[in-house]
Amino acid sequence: MAAKSPPRQTPQTGLPSSCAPSQSVAVLDNSAGFGSSARLKSSSGSSEDSQFIVEARFYRKLPNGRVRCTLCPRQCNLREGVRGDCGVRENRRGSLYTLVHSRVCAAHVDPVEKKPLFHYMPGSVAFSIATAGCNVHCRFCQNWELSQARPEDVPSQYLPPEKIVALARQSNCPTIAFTYTEPIVASEFVIETADVAHQNGIHTIAISNGYIHKNALPSVYGRMDAVKIDLKAFSDAYYYKVVIGQLKPVLETLVALVSLGKWTEIVYLLVPTLNDSDKELTALARWIKANLGHDIPLHFSQFFPDYRLAYLPPTPVASLERARQIALGEGIHFVYIGNVPRHPAENTYCPHCSRLLVQRSGYEIRQMLIADNACPYCHGAIPGVWSD
Ligand code: SF4
């Protein structure tokens, strides 16, 4: 079996081993450069850490002390004392509470290329944070120790929005990224942090599965400067069996993001034999072009065996190249290959004259020629957020 390569989107799981149970203030040590971890001291792990528990924004009270969470398409109907499917929202005495406000379980300084966002402030870094929990249950999840955990089972630190913003400034990050797990399920924390960030001139991005209810979507993604959506497949069956969710709400999210004018990029993790047929990829590309336009960047990422799909091999590079050719052939302008460092399809080429415009090597920008959102050779438009 091929050796497992380090996946590009994965944080060091949880917090560094230096963490000790404490409520003390986090200290960011960025001396190691990109990918270094905020050295955080963990919370006590008690589910009764009241500092993390805040009434939810998106829910309705029902008869008999029940509540309905209206944040994501699951619309969990919860009796008193029960948590939603995400494991981080709970009915307490007839009201719904989030258990992960300011409960940060991972913090790193990452290049935006690692998210990946290729048309958003290239070469910049993002102060990247996560809280425990997710509202889907992908069988290939590389961050399952955080995403599928209850918050009290994960070492975490109390980091309120003001502290997050201060740490971002301290580490010279122009952007805060909500990433690694699913930011939707921590919406109250994400919203408040984004508001404080913008008041202080810091941008915000979300790395998300797009599985949000349309009524909550503007409040959450509306506060982001850019969004990367993991579109896991283009089939209901895959979403049902492998993601444990639904495709339709994610497609609706993508359409809504483009309508809102949010800079959006799509990642499609190509899993051998499960979502990599020519038929599915052709349908995917045609849907994107018809509903989102041909300029939305599409990243085909290499799968590495993990969690409950550890029995599958890594995606062959030839499969990624085939997927890219299909999408290009259907008229998508910017199609990238991810998790294969130094592959030529990491670069941005002008869709009008085919010249090389942004040369990447892993997370590093080697050459960046785009100016005023245009190709310097043919002056064709190159959409994106290319500078602060
Ligand atoms: S966010 Fe959590 S509690 Fe709310 S509907 Fe979705 S899975 Fe259920």
What are the SSEs and their pairings?
Elements: E1 27-28, E2 38-39, E3 54-55, E4 59-61, E5 67-69, E6 77-78, E7 89-92, E8 95-98, E9 103-104, E10 106-111, E11 125-130, H1 144-147, E12 157-158, H2 161-170, E13 175-178, H3 187-199, E14 203-208, H4 217-220, E15 226-230, H5 236-243, H6 248-260, E16 263-270, H7 278-291, E17 298-302, H8 317-329, E18 335-338, E19 348-349, E20 356-361, E21 364-368
Parallel strand pairs: 11-13, 13-14, 14-15, 15-16, 16-17, 17-18
Antiparallel strand pairs: 1-2, 3-8, 4-5, 5-6, 7-8, 9-12, 10-11, 19-20, 20-21
Distance between the ends: 44 Å
Output the number of helix runs: 8
Number of strands: 21
Tell me the CATH architecture of the domain at 33-230: Alpha-Beta Barrel
Q: Look at the helices and sheets and give the structural class.
A: alpha/beta
- Overall helicity: 10-25%
Low-confidence region ranges: 1-42
Strands across the major sheet, in which order? Answer: 10-11-13-14-15-16-17-18
Please explain how this structure is put together.
With 388 residues, the protein is α/β, with parallel strands linked by helices. The chain has a domain at 33-230: TIM Barrel, CATH 3.20.20. Helices cover 20% and strands 21% of the residues. It has helices at 144-147, 161-170, 187-199, 217-220, 236-243, 248-260, 278-291, 317-329; strands spanning 27-28, 38-39, 54-55, 59-61, 67-69, 77-78, 89-92, 95-98, 103-104, 106-111, 125-130, 157-158, 175-178, 203-208, 226-230, 263-270, 298-302, 335-338, 348-349, 356-361, 364-368. The strands form 6 sheets. It has an 8-stranded mixed β-sheet with strand order 10-11-13-14-15-16-17-18. It has a 3-stranded antiparallel β-sheet with strand order 3-8-7, with no helix packed on it. Helix 7 (278-291) links the parallel strand 16 and strand 17. The chain starts with 26 loop residues before the first strand and ends in a 20-residue tail after the last strand. The model is unreliable at 1-42 (pLDDT under 50). Bound molecules: iron/sulfur cluster. Residues 69, 71-72, 74-76, 84-86, 89, 135, 185 line the site of iron/sulfur cluster (SF4). Residues 69, 71-72, 74-76, 84-86, 89, 135, 185 line the site of iron/sulfur cluster.
